[in-house]
Structures are given as C-alpha cells and as structure tokens.
Design a protein that fits this description.
By secondary structure, the chain is an alpha/beta fold. It is built from 6 helices and 12 strands.
C-alpha cells in the first residue's frame, strides 16, 4: 500500500470509528479487507496491526487499545527466523507458511491493557476476562478470569449453576435497545445475576 493509500485508509478508519460500537460499514470493511469479523457492540479491535486475519470476535467484547492478538510465530526450525525465509513477497521462497487456524473470541470477552494472546491460543470463551499484562498461551474457558505470564485461571466469575442460567438467557443476542429495556425492568438480573433472578427473567419469556 502506497503513501496515498495509507492516508486514505487512516482517514476512512477515523470516520468509521466515530460509531465503532454499531457501524455495519466498519464491520463489513474489516471482514472483506482484513478477514476480521467483529460482532455488534464490540470495540477496541478495529486495528489490523493488533488483530490479525482469520480472527472471529463475538458481540459486546471489549479490547483495550494496547491488547494484541498474534496469529503465528516465526519458524524456529529453519536456518533463520527472518521473514525472508517464509514470506513470498521478498522473492526468496515460492510459498507462504500455511494459513493459521481461526482465532475465536466469543461474546462479552474483556482483554485488558497490555494483554498478549499468543498463536498457541485459538479460543477465548464467552464472558472471559483477561487481566492486564497477561500473556495468554492456551485456551481460555468461558467465564474465567485469567492473569499472569503465562495466564492462569484466577477464578470463575460465577458458579456453574449461575453460568448455566446466564447461558440460557442468550442475553448477548439482544440489541442495545433490548438491553436497555432489560436494565430498566430487571436490574437485579443484569447487575447481580443469580440463579433465582435469572429464572425470573427466563420465566418472563427471555431465552
């Protein structure tokens, strides 16, 4: 990409990021141009230098501006780890490295500041929280809080019965307007979910 193209891309991104949470145009651009799919209301992840191709992000996820996802390591078995030996564009090799597996980041995931997700991690489950400065080297289970280098489970956000009840609601499929209604009508279930408060929510027709 030339200098003019780079300037145009930055200007377009700046305009589209004004409505980062909801812009369908922004999401189509990143899907078509960079192979990064981002669900509605997720934010902080529209950066092709920090979020690589073949990344799939759910709805309502939060990325700190310093969080980064890595899709591949330099090959360590070759004579050199330099990209001359694995990127075709330099003219030394005739083929690229195989495409990496899909990186799946589900709904309502929070990647805090200075998080690094390494290529050995290809799944971060719904509702997970990655603590600041963590280096994630393996699968992150849903609703866990992980931290450290390498990242380890600190605790689960909820007990299993509450997690099951949350999953049954499928609240992440709600629109912003529907979530607003839920805040007004069922604040206890929203801000302090319990099995009983979620059961009342489900009995009202949600899920």
């Amino acid at each position: 990409m030339g200098i003019v193209g780079s300037i145009i891309e930055k200007a377009r991104l700046r305009i589209l990021l004004r409505n980062e949470y909801e812009s369908l145009s922004l999401r189509r651009w990143f899907s078509n141009s960079f192979d990064v799919d981002v669900g509605l209301y997720s934010y902080g992840c529209f950066d092709r230098w920090r979020v690589p191709p073949r990344t799939r992000i759910g709805r309502y996820s939060s990325f700190a501006k310093s969080a980064r996802v890595l899709d591949a390591n330099h090959p360590v078995e070759a004579l050199s780890t330099h990209p001359f030996l694995y990127e075709k564009r330099f003219g030394l090799v005739s083929s690229e490295l195989p495409a990496p597996q899909l990186m799946i980041i589900q709904d309502d995931v929070w990647l805090s500041h200075n998080v690094t997700v390494t290529p050995s991690c290809k799944f971060i489950g719904r509702g997970a929280i990655i603590g600041a400065g963590a280096v994630v080297t393996s699968r992150v289970e849903p609703y866990t809080i992980v931290a450290g280098t390498p990242a380890k489970i600190i605790r689960y956000r909820f007990d299993q019965k509450t997690i099951d009840a949350i999953e049954e609601t499928k609240w992440w499929e709600l629109t912003k307007e529907e979530l607003s209604d839920l805040v007004k009508t069922s604040p206890l279930a929203v801000f302090h979910p319990t099995v009983s408060s979620l059961a009342r929510l489900l009995s009202s027709g949600m899920g």
